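pasting for ref
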Amino acid sequence: MRILGERDNELLLELGATVKNVGVVRHTIKKFTFSLRGLDVGSRWEKNPGKINLIDFPRKLQRGDWIRPKYVTVIEPGVEQDFYFTVKVSPATVEYLNLYAEIEYSASWAPPHSAAITRTLLELRKQNFEATQLPQPNATV
């Protein structure tokens, strides 16, 4: 997750995912979805029994597809593919952001894969601030 901009209490976020085929067989992805959820400032850190007791992020911010529906993406052996998606979220009270992604393959023998990452809004703002600072010219004497 990376902040591209912030104004009027909204964030423009770039969500990124990298899929690397480390095997020797071509993989065809038929579905690659994401869900961005949040936890508001001061909210309790509650476990979600439906998600093997992982922390629940109850605020739904965005859902989407990394690849267009009805299309497939092929990843050859040894190839790394990057996926990006730009979303707008209203972070008025969001303290934590959780990005969850799931891949479904065309092959019936291949189980789905999933991954998740959580970041604080403060951490993302700090990274954005550091990335946008211009280097200071050296002082001459």
